[in-house]
Specification:
The complex is a heterodimer of chains A (about 200) and B (about 375).
Chain A lengths: L4 H9 L5 E5 L5 H8 L3 E6 L2 H9 L3 E4 L2 H4 L8 E7 L8 H11 E9 L4 H10 L23 H11 L1 E10 L2 E3 L4 H4 L2 E8 L2
Parallel strand pairs in A: 1-2, 1-4, 2-3, 4-5
Antiparallel strand pairs in A: 5-8, 6-7, 6-8
Chain B lengths: L10 E10 L5 E12 L9 E5 L37 E5 L31 H15 L6 E5 L1 H12 L6 E5 L7 H16 L15 H15 L2 H7 L24 H14 L4 H13 L20 E7 L7 H13 L3 E7 L13 H13 L2
Parallel strand pairs in B: 3-4, 3-5, 5-6, 6-7, 7-8
Antiparallel strand pairs in B: 1-2, 2-4
Classes of the chains: A alpha/beta (about 200), B alpha/beta (about 375).
Chain lengths: ~200, ~375
Amino acid sequence: MTLRPDLAIIADHVAPGSRVLDIGCGDGALMAALTAKGCDARGLELDAAKVATAVARGLSVVQGDADTDLADYPDASFDVALLSQTLQTTRAPDKVLDHLLRIGQRAFVSFPNFAHWRVRASLMWGGRMPVTKLLPERWYDTPNIHHVTIDDFRALMAERGVTVEQSWFLNHGRPTSAAAANFRAEHAVFALRKKI
Amino acid sequence: MSTDQRFGLARQITLAGPLALDGGGVLASVDIAYETYGTLNADASNAILICHALTGDQHVASTHPVTGKPGWWERMIGAGKPVDPARDFIICANVLGSCMGSSGPSSVNPDTGAPWAMAFPVITIRDMVRAQAMLLDHLGVRVLKAAVGGSMGGMQVLSWAATYPERVRSAVVIASTARHSAQNIAFHEVGRQAIMADPNWSGGDYYGGDTPAAGLAVARMAAHITYLSEAGLTAKFGRKLQARADGTAGAKTFGFDADFQIESYLRHQGLSFVDRFDANAYLYITRAMDYFDLAEEHGGRLADAFRGTDTRFCVVSFDTDWLYPTSESRAIVHALNAAGARVSFVELSSPFGHDAFLLDAPEMNRVVDGFLGAGE
């Protein structure tokens, strides 16, 4: 089974043997890849059917909500906390990020870039909220309630004093350069650490 | 293995004590009625303990000797099921305090030769677990592959994991709680008062005479309501009237017969229960459940019950269970997370309320099967 490109990047850069919390883990595809690398992976997922699938494949996954349940995890209880394609669906993304950096020594965050040129074009020329391959839902049924761009995210990290250790940008699932990423990348992955 | 008298159906053993109880008393010896299914492997690593609920018994996957009904959890235990005797060695024991062959108020006090009745010491969930641990010692099982239980069975599984963490590799806790709430205690107290208000109860000394069947039936009726969801009751019974025995259509009688189908159903549940259960045992086991508060046993912090545990946990709740609602399961999961334990949790959807764990629940089976399989 091939991993989604942003998940593959995360899987490649988590050290073997790490204790990992995957927030919004879905059916556990990334957790399974990390477990195969000798990681101790735990997951949090809102959707009951996905939780059942993940548990049925032998993963430790708890049904819960990133907005309300992260407070229950102790400080620094994981080496790495992951948040893939979930940030833009939370009610309070900034608080979720705070928890992420509190629970994990490091964090990986991936999200769809709302400033990608195709999105901009749709708004600018069509005057309609964009429906793209990456953002396939229409404005009223999308789970993405906090659209974020790469530059927005960089600004928030700077404001919060969070160190960006590394970042990756994807276009059509392939790496693209950091230059003009806010315009050219559909997807971003950030590796973060709280400044000490 | 088949010649080993310790294994098989309808087993009973008297285990030498003493068993020191949480209430301060001591049982010099303990009778345990139990069944085993499947074969214990050479290194005794495939044993799964099934813990039963309040009115359950050891007949988890065999015909009940009184009612003639199939085992109470054959949906979970059997060929091709999550717990499979072809692979697992399965143990199910009647809990301490019950009435199906284990020591309890209806069993004979060896000191007097008469039934214990109310002289039987009040016991706790942890006392039940200690008695089960004595049985495992007798069976040559040091470490359980898994302990699995729903409702009060789930309380025992939690108590197992907290009391003997090194003896449980995996724990499955379904539709359960880490402590009895005021509402839980309240419903149990209604049941106990119904039993004790029955003149036949006679301070518990009714053995050999008429039993407090009317009181026990009312206790069962009240409890049974808590096992079902309001929506489930409405779907099944609504306000439908009960047809008469002579075949005439149901009608309001302007009297106090069972006009409504739900009344008839509850009366039937109450009456059929008294044939298979002892009223004093009902008092003792409900008391043990009311006293259950796993956090209290660990300085008020539930997480401390699981500190440093290597046990894997699977917690399952049902969205229409208002007896032990999802919030209770979440409290267990929060504590396990705080303790750094490996835990899975899912709330499943079912129209059947608390009873859902005993009914057809393919998602529950899928989750438990995957969870147990991953522990191999």
